[in-house]
Write a structure and sequence with these properties.
Elements lengths: L2 H23 L7 E5 L10 E4 L10 E3 L5 E3 L17 E5 L7 E8 L5 E10 L2 E8 L8 E8 L2 E8 L9 E8 L2 E6 L2 E7 L7 E7 L4 E10 L1
Length: about 220
């Protein structure tokens, strides 16, 4: 083996170690399945609706439609006197309060251009993390953002200038392991942040002024 070949192999090993560490840290949801929801039950008996109080154009309207998609038809949004960056709306939540490290993945189809996403590690209606996507420029878009809700307000944990295409299907996903949180769109990582305030909780879907938002194939897997 030449000295140059030896050096290349050593360099390759050194580069591989941190990559393996990151891969093992986010297992990509290869554990046991906690939730696999295809919305065959039109009654949504395993789900709970949470509308923010004092919203405009409420209440929410979550229904499983004949095409097999879960659709939120209301334009429910905000609070009177609200400002950009909080984007209050409606949640549809499921799961168990004891769930801790997991990945949540959902197929979506946005028909409007406002806000939608998912929530995770939800302790109650005012304490959880949120991934939100907004396209409308008048509402602060295009943006994809990870937030933490603590009481009546949201704190931004990270964001990128990225929206979505109306009418196009996409897959959004969050991995939460310890204090590490990663957001992905169509299997591409778009955000990675750290925050350890909430360690466990339920999962959910979210809409802000987003009439006609479609969701399907919600899958939660233990990490």
């Amino acid at each position: 083996m030449s000295r140059a070949t030896s050096l290349i192999r050593r360099a390759s090993i050194h580069l591989l170690v941190p990559l393996l560490g990151m891969t093992s840290f986010f297992s990509g949801g290869c554990g046991s399945v906690l939730l696999d929801e295809r919305f065959y039950d039109a009654g949504l008996r395993n789900w709970t609706v949470i509308d923010d109080p004092e919203t405009v154009e409420g209440p929410s309207d979550w229904k499983v439609e004949s095409n097999g998609w879960l659709i939120q038809r209301s334009n429910i949004w905000g609070r009177r006197g609200d400002f950009l960056g909080r984007w209050f709306g409606t949640l549809l939540v499921a799961g168990d309060a004891s769930w801790s490290d997991y990945s949540i993945r959902v197929r979506v189809r946005p028909e409007d251009d406002d806000g939608f996403g998912l929530v995770f590690r939800l302790e109650d209606a005012e304490h959880y993390y949120r991934l939100i996507l907004i396209q409308d420029g008048l509402n602060g878009g295009p943006v994809t953002r990870l937030d933490k809700r603590n009481g009546g307000d949201y704190t931004e944990l990270g964001s990128v200038k990225r929206g979505y295409r109306q009418g196009a299907e996409m897959v959004i996903e969050v991995d939460a392991v310890g204090d590490a949180i990663r957001a992905r769109i169509d299997d591409q990582t778009v955000l990675e942040v750290r925050d350890g305030e909430y360690r466990r909780g339920r999962v959910g879907l979210f809409c802000y002024a987003q009439s006609g938002q479609a969701f399907d194939d919600v899958r939660v897997v233990k990490n």
